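Please produce the structure of this protein holding 4FV.
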Amino acid sequence: MLRFDVVTLFPDMVRPVVEQSILKRAQEKGLLDVRVHNLRDYTDDRHRTADDVPYGGGAGMVMKAEPIFRAVDALTAEAQEDGEQMRVLFPSPHGRPFSQDYAQQLAREQRRMVILCGHYEGVDERVRTALAPEEVSVGDYVLTGGELPALILIDAAARLVPGVLGDPESVMEESFSDSLLEYPHYTRPGLVRGLGVPEVLLSGHHEAIRIWRRKQALRSTYLRRPDLLRDRVLTDEDQRLLNEVISEGVTAMSMRGGEEE
Ligand code: 4FV
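Below is the modeled complex.
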């Protein structure tokens, strides 16, 4: 069972999301357990103050260290009582880039994962000094808080836990599962706004469908994320399909008289 303890100033930004759809069912199946902790419960003044103005001046507010220390101390004590280990994650732009491999690693984690959600300008630097949390970034841009990144980590990891997604098959052949972009999907009806469905998908010819899908995945990756193909060893079949894609691409270009896409 995957266990996350989310420490946040805005529990209502987190709870509703993990109580929907696949994450909700995963918790009902006992495959996932997400506990959301309100940081204000770990403050000690009657105004439940969890942030303050920055030393040295400057805009915005900084999250106070003590409530975070108290929250982590309480969760540490609870884990020890239950004979469990803990891993403290801290979403921040300073962190190691999050990825599908990282998600697969979290999905196999046996320890309880505490996710500290920063907010405003950030947290008091002594949180890093004292707790040395594992920092993870969900992208090179700045958010208002760590709540959305926390949900990204939970969602990406939980869906890789066997039994969370209906059919484990769907995890095997998805984007980045083997760092290729996914093949295109179609469903009923067969005609939408005059747009049909590739014949091969209606053929029932499973091997032809498998090859078509592989070629489409290689094609999208080649056109949209060639970086994913760069240091990748291709199977003979993949190399053959990619050569077809490239030659077809080139012919399509020449057909269009060489103008860019
Ligand atoms: C972020 C990111 C992120 C920084 C200040 C929260 C914000 C605010 N976290 N990947 N990108 N965090 O922008 O993980 O407190």
